[in-house]
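Form 12-C: Joint structure prediction
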Amino acid sequence: DTGVSQNPRHKITKRGQNVTFRCDPISEHNRLYWYRQTLGQGPEFLTYFQNEAQLEKSRLLSDRFSAERPKGSFSTLEIQRTEQGDSAMYLCASSLPGLNTEAFFGQGTRLTVV
Amino acid sequence: AQTVTQSQPEMSVQEAETVTLSCTYDTSESNYYLFWYKQPPSRQMILVIRQEAYKQQNATENRFSVNFQKAAKSFSLKISDSQLGDTAMYFCAPVTGTYKYIFGTGTRLKVLA
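Section 2 - Result
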Protein backbone atom coordinates (compact mmCIF):
# COMPACT_ATOMS: atom_id res chain seq x y z
CA ASP A 1 0.00 0.00 0.00
CA THR A 2 1.41 3.39 -0.96
CA GLY A 3 -0.48 5.44 1.60
CA VAL A 4 -3.27 7.98 1.15
CA SER A 5 -3.56 9.16 -2.44
CA GLN A 6 -5.23 12.37 -3.57
CA ASN A 7 -6.05 13.48 -7.10
CA PRO A 8 -5.55 15.83 -8.70
CA ARG A 9 -2.58 17.40 -6.94
CA HIS A 10 -3.35 20.81 -8.38
CA LYS A 11 -6.53 22.31 -9.80
CA ILE A 12 -7.06 25.74 -11.28
CA THR A 13 -10.65 26.66 -12.01
CA LYS A 14 -12.68 29.70 -12.91
CA ARG A 15 -15.03 31.19 -10.37
CA GLY A 16 -18.45 29.63 -10.65
CA GLN A 17 -17.26 26.27 -11.93
CA ASN A 18 -17.70 22.98 -10.08
CA VAL A 19 -14.72 20.89 -9.00
CA THR A 20 -14.37 17.37 -7.63
CA PHE A 21 -11.44 15.90 -5.74
CA ARG A 22 -10.75 12.26 -5.04
CA CYS A 23 -9.13 10.56 -2.05
CA ASP A 24 -8.05 6.92 -1.89
CA PRO A 25 -7.38 5.98 1.72
CA ILE A 26 -5.21 3.18 3.06
CA SER A 27 -7.22 0.10 2.27
CA GLU A 28 -7.96 -1.22 5.76
CA HIS A 29 -8.78 2.21 7.23
CA ASN A 30 -12.47 2.70 7.90
CA ARG A 31 -12.21 6.36 8.90
CA LEU A 32 -11.69 9.07 6.35
CA TYR A 33 -11.33 12.80 6.99
CA TRP A 34 -11.36 15.91 4.83
CA TYR A 35 -9.61 19.09 5.94
CA ARG A 36 -8.98 22.47 4.35
CA GLN A 37 -5.75 24.34 4.92
CA THR A 38 -4.97 27.91 3.92
CA LEU A 39 -1.48 29.36 3.85
CA GLY A 40 0.09 29.65 7.28
CA GLN A 41 -2.87 28.09 9.06
CA GLY A 42 -3.62 24.73 10.59
CA PRO A 43 -5.90 22.23 8.88
CA GLU A 44 -9.57 23.05 9.39
CA PHE A 45 -11.98 20.12 9.80
CA LEU A 46 -14.56 19.74 7.05
CA THR A 47 -16.12 16.30 7.42
CA TYR A 48 -15.44 12.69 8.28
CA PHE A 49 -16.70 9.23 7.40
CA GLN A 50 -16.76 5.93 9.18
CA ASN A 51 -17.05 3.40 6.38
CA GLU A 52 -19.68 4.86 4.04
CA ALA A 53 -21.49 6.89 6.71
CA GLN A 54 -20.78 10.61 6.91
CA LEU A 55 -20.75 11.11 10.69
CA GLU A 56 -20.03 14.80 10.98
CA LYS A 57 -19.91 17.86 8.79
CA SER A 58 -18.48 21.17 9.91
CA ARG A 59 -20.96 23.99 10.39
CA LEU A 60 -18.47 26.14 8.53
CA LEU A 61 -19.09 24.10 5.41
CA SER A 62 -21.56 25.74 3.11
CA ASP A 63 -24.16 23.88 1.09
CA ARG A 64 -21.87 24.20 -1.92
CA PHE A 65 -19.65 21.50 -0.45
CA SER A 66 -20.59 17.84 -0.53
CA ALA A 67 -18.63 14.69 0.18
CA GLU A 68 -19.34 11.05 -0.49
CA ARG A 69 -17.72 7.75 0.28
CA PRO A 70 -19.58 5.09 -1.67
CA LYS A 71 -18.98 1.54 -0.43
CA GLY A 72 -16.64 2.83 2.25
CA SER A 73 -13.65 2.96 -0.05
CA PHE A 74 -12.53 6.09 -1.90
CA SER A 75 -14.11 9.46 -1.20
CA THR A 76 -14.93 12.49 -3.31
CA LEU A 77 -15.27 16.10 -2.26
CA GLU A 78 -17.24 18.35 -4.61
CA ILE A 79 -17.39 22.12 -4.50
CA GLN A 80 -20.14 23.70 -6.55
CA ARG A 81 -20.05 27.28 -7.87
CA THR A 82 -16.53 27.87 -6.66
CA GLU A 83 -15.59 31.22 -5.12
CA GLN A 84 -12.17 32.79 -4.70
CA GLY A 85 -12.38 32.12 -0.97
CA ASP A 86 -12.39 28.39 -1.71
CA SER A 87 -8.76 28.61 -2.81
CA ALA A 88 -6.86 26.39 -0.38
CA MET A 89 -5.16 23.04 0.08
CA TYR A 90 -7.67 20.23 0.61
CA LEU A 91 -6.27 17.42 2.70
CA CYS A 92 -7.56 13.90 3.09
CA ALA A 93 -6.58 11.57 5.93
CA SER A 94 -7.51 8.05 6.94
CA SER A 95 -7.20 6.00 10.11
CA LEU A 96 -8.21 2.84 11.88
CA PRO A 97 -10.85 3.00 14.63
CA GLY A 98 -9.92 4.22 18.10
CA LEU A 99 -8.97 7.43 19.86
CA ASN A 100 -5.27 6.67 19.81
CA THR A 101 -4.89 5.78 16.16
CA GLU A 102 -2.66 7.73 13.87
CA ALA A 103 -4.19 9.62 10.98
CA PHE A 104 -2.28 9.22 7.73
CA PHE A 105 -2.48 12.21 5.44
CA GLY A 106 -2.32 12.52 1.70
CA GLN A 107 -0.30 15.19 -0.06
CA GLY A 108 -3.39 17.28 -0.67
CA THR A 109 -5.09 18.92 -3.62
CA ARG A 110 -4.24 22.58 -4.11
CA LEU A 111 -7.22 24.49 -5.49
CA THR A 112 -6.85 27.90 -7.06
CA VAL A 113 -10.00 29.75 -8.06
CA VAL A 114 -9.38 32.57 -10.53
CA ALA B 1 -16.20 23.25 21.57
CA GLN B 2 -12.59 22.27 21.48
CA THR B 3 -9.99 24.96 21.00
CA VAL B 4 -6.25 24.63 20.52
CA THR B 5 -3.75 27.45 21.00
CA GLN B 6 -0.18 27.43 19.78
CA SER B 7 1.18 30.76 20.90
CA GLN B 8 4.50 30.65 19.03
CA PRO B 9 3.94 31.30 15.32
CA GLU B 10 7.64 30.93 14.51
CA MET B 11 10.71 29.61 16.27
CA SER B 12 14.28 28.92 15.34
CA VAL B 13 16.93 26.74 16.94
CA GLN B 14 20.54 25.95 16.23
CA GLU B 15 21.34 22.48 15.02
CA ALA B 16 22.02 20.07 17.94
CA GLU B 17 20.25 22.29 20.46
CA THR B 18 16.92 21.75 22.22
CA VAL B 19 13.67 23.57 21.56
CA THR B 20 10.23 23.43 23.16
CA LEU B 21 6.99 24.16 21.33
CA SER B 22 3.96 25.03 23.42
CA CYS B 23 0.32 24.02 23.06
CA THR B 24 -2.72 24.58 25.22
CA TYR B 25 -6.15 23.16 24.56
CA ASP B 26 -9.61 23.23 25.97
CA THR B 27 -11.94 20.26 26.22
CA SER B 28 -14.66 19.18 28.60
CA GLU B 29 -14.06 15.49 27.96
CA SER B 30 -12.12 13.31 30.37
CA ASN B 31 -10.73 10.74 27.96
CA TYR B 32 -8.81 11.93 24.96
CA TYR B 33 -5.52 11.66 23.14
CA LEU B 34 -3.12 14.39 22.17
CA PHE B 35 -1.01 14.37 19.05
CA TRP B 36 1.82 16.36 17.57
CA TYR B 37 2.04 16.32 13.80
CA LYS B 38 4.81 17.67 11.61
CA GLN B 39 4.34 19.15 8.13
CA PRO B 40 7.67 19.60 6.29
CA PRO B 41 7.73 22.16 3.48
CA SER B 42 5.67 20.90 0.51
CA ARG B 43 5.25 17.50 2.09
CA GLN B 44 2.45 15.70 3.86
CA MET B 45 1.68 15.70 7.57
CA ILE B 46 3.24 12.95 9.62
CA LEU B 47 2.82 11.91 13.22
CA VAL B 48 5.55 12.90 15.65
CA ILE B 49 4.24 11.69 19.00
CA ARG B 50 1.01 10.90 20.85
CA GLN B 51 -0.09 10.98 24.51
CA GLU B 52 -3.09 9.45 26.27
CA ALA B 53 -4.73 11.83 28.73
CA TYR B 54 -5.07 9.07 31.36
CA LYS B 55 -1.35 8.37 31.43
CA GLN B 56 0.69 10.50 33.79
CA GLN B 57 3.96 9.43 32.25
CA ASN B 58 5.07 11.72 29.45
CA ALA B 59 5.49 10.10 26.05
CA THR B 60 8.91 9.88 24.43
CA GLU B 61 9.90 8.95 20.87
CA ASN B 62 13.65 9.11 20.35
CA ARG B 63 14.57 12.82 20.29
CA PHE B 64 10.96 13.92 20.80
CA SER B 65 9.24 14.11 24.17
CA VAL B 66 6.21 15.83 25.62
CA ASN B 67 5.44 17.66 28.83
CA PHE B 68 1.80 16.91 29.51
CA GLN B 69 0.12 18.92 32.27
CA LYS B 70 -3.48 17.72 32.35
CA ALA B 71 -4.78 20.17 34.93
CA ALA B 72 -3.32 23.08 33.00
CA LYS B 73 -4.40 21.54 29.67
CA SER B 74 -0.90 22.03 28.37
CA PHE B 75 0.91 19.72 25.96
CA SER B 76 4.34 20.96 24.91
CA LEU B 77 6.77 19.23 22.56
CA LYS B 78 10.48 19.10 23.25
CA ILE B 79 12.89 18.36 20.43
CA SER B 80 16.38 17.43 21.57
CA ASP B 81 19.50 17.44 19.40
CA SER B 82 17.65 19.34 16.66
CA GLN B 83 18.43 18.33 13.10
CA LEU B 84 18.01 20.21 9.83
CA GLY B 85 15.31 17.72 8.86
CA ASP B 86 13.21 18.90 11.81
CA THR B 87 12.49 22.14 9.93
CA ALA B 88 8.70 22.07 9.47
CA MET B 89 5.34 23.33 10.69
CA TYR B 90 4.31 21.59 13.90
CA PHE B 91 0.68 21.16 14.84
CA CYS B 92 -0.84 20.09 18.12
CA ALA B 93 -4.14 18.20 17.91
CA PRO B 94 -6.36 16.68 20.60
CA VAL B 95 -8.77 13.88 19.69
CA THR B 96 -11.82 13.27 21.83
CA GLY B 97 -14.91 11.10 21.55
CA THR B 98 -15.92 12.84 18.35
CA TYR B 99 -12.87 11.19 16.74
CA LYS B 100 -11.87 14.27 14.77
CA TYR B 101 -8.52 15.98 15.05
CA ILE B 102 -8.74 19.67 15.88
CA PHE B 103 -5.51 21.35 14.89
CA GLY B 104 -3.91 24.48 16.25
CA THR B 105 -2.56 27.26 14.03
CA GLY B 106 0.89 25.70 14.13
CA THR B 107 4.44 26.71 14.94
CA ARG B 108 6.91 27.15 12.11
CA LEU B 109 10.25 25.74 13.28
CA LYS B 110 13.45 26.50 11.48
CA VAL B 111 16.61 24.61 12.40
CA LEU B 112 19.71 26.64 11.63
CA ALA B 113 23.01 25.10 10.53
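Section 3 - Comments
The longest strand of chain A covers residues 88-95. Chain A touches chain B through 24 residues (CB under 8 Å).
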